[in-house]
Amino acid sequence: MSVAPAPPALIDPFESLRNWPAFYLSPQLAMDSDTATEQEPQCRICGDFPPSEQLLKLRCECHYCDGCLERLFTIAMKDEGSYPPRCHRRTISLNLARRHLPKTLARIYRGKTLELSTKDRTYCHKVTCNVFIAPHSIHNGQAFCQKCRSVTCQKCKEAEHFGACANTGFELVRGLAMQQKWQQCPDCKRLVEKIDGCNHVL
To answer: A biological process (GO) annotation for this entry (predicted)?
Structure first.
C-alpha cells in the first residue's frame, strides 16, 4: 500500500520581508506597518490625527487638537452653560491649555474668567458702556466702572443714589416673577423659569 506524498508547504511570499527595515519597503507597506504597530492619537472632537505637538493630552487620556481647543474656549466665553471647558466632567484649565491657544485668546479668557466666576455680577449702568465691574472695584455697595468712571449701585444695578433703592422696573419684574412663579438663583440672582425637570436650581 503506497502512501500519498504530503502536499508542499505553503510559502508566505512576504515572510522574507517582515524583518526588513521600513525604508526598504514601498511607502504604502511602510505606512501600513506603522499603522499596525502604533496607533496615532486622535482628536476627540474632529477625529483628525495632527502631529503630537498640536495635541493636548488630558488626564482622562483624551486628546484635543489646537483648533478644537481654541473653539472650545471661545464657546465657553460666549455660552455660560459651556463654562468652564470640561472633559469627562473635569475642568480643562487655562494653564494646561495655554500652550495650544493663541496668546490673544488666552489673555481675553483669563479676564473673562473673573466675570464668569463671580456670582452676583454688577455691570456699568450706562447702556453705552455696560462693562463688567470686578468685585475689587466695589466698595460699600458702590461699583466704580474702570472704563467710563461712572458709579453703579451694586444692589439695584442702577446709577448711584442716596437712600434706599427705588428701582420701579426691578419691582415690576419681581412682581411678574411672583405671578409666574419664577425662582431666583441664590448665586447669580437671575430669574429662572421652570420648563421641565426637578424643582432644584443648580
So the answer is: protein ubiquitination
Predicted confidence (pLDDT) per residue in 53-108, tens digit: 999 999 999 999 999 999 999 999 998 889 999 999 999 999 999 999 999 999 99
pTM of the predicted structure, to 2 decimals: 0.61
Q: Which of 31, 81, 88, 95 is nearest to 63 (CA)?
A: 88
How would DSSP label each residue in 96-165? HHGGGS-HHHHHHHHHHHHHHH-SS-EE-S-TTT--EE-GGGEETTEEEPTTT--EEETTT-SB--SSS-
CB-based contact 153:159 (threshold 8 Å): yes
Give the C-alpha distances (Å, rounded to integers) separating 124 from 16, 117, 120, 155: 77, 18, 14, 12
54-57-63-67 Cα dihedral, nearest 10 degrees: -40
Describe the crossing of helices 66-78 and 103-117 by its angle, rounded to 10 degrees: 30
Strands (E), the chain: 55-57, 63-65, 86-87, 90-91, 122-123, 132-133, 138-139, 142-144, 151-153, 183-184, 191-192
The DSSP symbol for 43 reads: B
